[in-house]
Amino acid sequence: MEQGLKPLKHFGQLASKVSGENLTHRLVADSLPAELKPLAHTFNAMLDRLEAAFLRLNQFSADLAHEFRTPINNLMMQSQVALSQPRDTTDYQDVLASNVEEFERLAHMVSDMLLLAKTEQQQPIEKQLIDLRPLCQQLMEYFELIAAERDIVFELQGNAQLHANSELFRRALANILANAVRHADSQSTIQITLSQTAKQIEIHICNQGKTIPAEQLGQLFERFYRAESARTHQGNTGLGLAITRAIVQAHQGQISAQSQARKTCFSICFKTWF
Questions:
Q1: Pick from 168, 150, 160: nearest CA to 208
Q2: What is the pLDDT of residue 148?
Q3: Angle at 128 between CA 125 and CA 129, to 5 degrees
Q4: Which residues contact 273 (CB under 8 A, 6 or more apart)?
Q5: Which pLDDT tens digit goes with each residue over 199-237?
Q6: What does the chain look like in DSSP terms, one character per residue?
Q7: In terms of pLDDT, which residue wins out, 19 or 92?
Q8: b/e for 17-41, b at 16 or more Cβ within 10 A?
Q9: What is the mean pLDDT of the segment spanning 188-209?
């Protein structure tokens, strides 16, 4: 009897070792009876998920500390310099105005992080049937003035309908368009293409601009990631495309990016459920 319970005791011993600091142990399924192998594989898969989640959390905490450190240091330094000696009203107003910009960036970052956390919880979201063409037209109008400063124009083709949360999906598309406008060449065209078949819905947003190296494409949707060319743009928190990916995945869709010959395209694909 005791020999038969030995594998279960091993399960218990391993479970007692699992903690946030120690998630590396796994059961050796080959040494277990056939009846327990499926349970061992399930147990190991659970540990794999927990380890991956803790790694993401640790990385997120490190990235968060790094991102907050710069604006907080700026606020401290500017305030200390301002207080180091008497100054006139204009100087103090300049310091306060600069500090307000940093506070706005921090507030924007916190808002983005809350939205990202909420979206990644994978809770059911309210959806309704939305026409993507009018939504894209509204966003084009929103970005029109910013784009016009560099003679960038929009071109919209096709149409499609999607069951989605209108507010969240608007934010997802807006993030991609903001990225496209930011990196598009002057006097170029940003192309938005919508298509729908019996099997899937596709959205493609393409802009002419500097080619993104292949090794960077896989990192574009990571939290706080900013390509070197994007680091000079103030107000860019590095969370926009991470939020977009989370929203697309919350709608059971997939998003990818391709870049070659000075053309970058973001593609979103959904299976057709209706």
A1: 150
A2: 94
A3: 140
A4: 163
A5: 999 999 999 999 998 888 878 888 777 654 443 344 556
A6: -HHHHHHHHHHHHHHHH-BTTB------GGGS-TTTHHHHHHHHHHHHHHHHHHHHHHHHHHHHHHHHHHHHHHHHHHHHHHHSS---HHHHHHHHHHHHHHHHHHHHHHHHHHHHHHHTT------EEEEHHHHHHHHHHHHHHHHHTTT-EEEEE---EEEE-HHHHHHHHHHHHHHHHHHBPTT-EEEEEEEE-SSEEEEEEEEEBSPPPHHHHTTTTSTT---GGGTTSTT--S-HHHHHHHHHHHTTEEEEEEEETTEEEEEEEEE---
A7: 92
A8: ebeeeebeeebeeeebeeebeeebe
A9: 95
pLDDT computed for residue 26 by the predictor:
79
For tokens 């993507």, name the residue: 132
In this predicted structure, what is the pLDDT of residue 232?
Answer: 39
The position carrying tokens 């860019």 is 236
Q: Is the pLDDT higher at 41 or at 63?
A: 41
Residue 236 is predicted with a pLDDT of 59
Select from 268, 67, 252 the least CA-distant residue to 175. 268
pLDDT digits (tens, 9 = 90+) for 251-273: 989 999 999 999 999 999 998 75
Q: What are phi and psi of 9, to 5 degrees?
A: -65, -35
Place 239 in a pLDDT band, splitting at 50, 70 and 90: confident
Which residues lie across from 270 on neighbouring strands?
201, 253
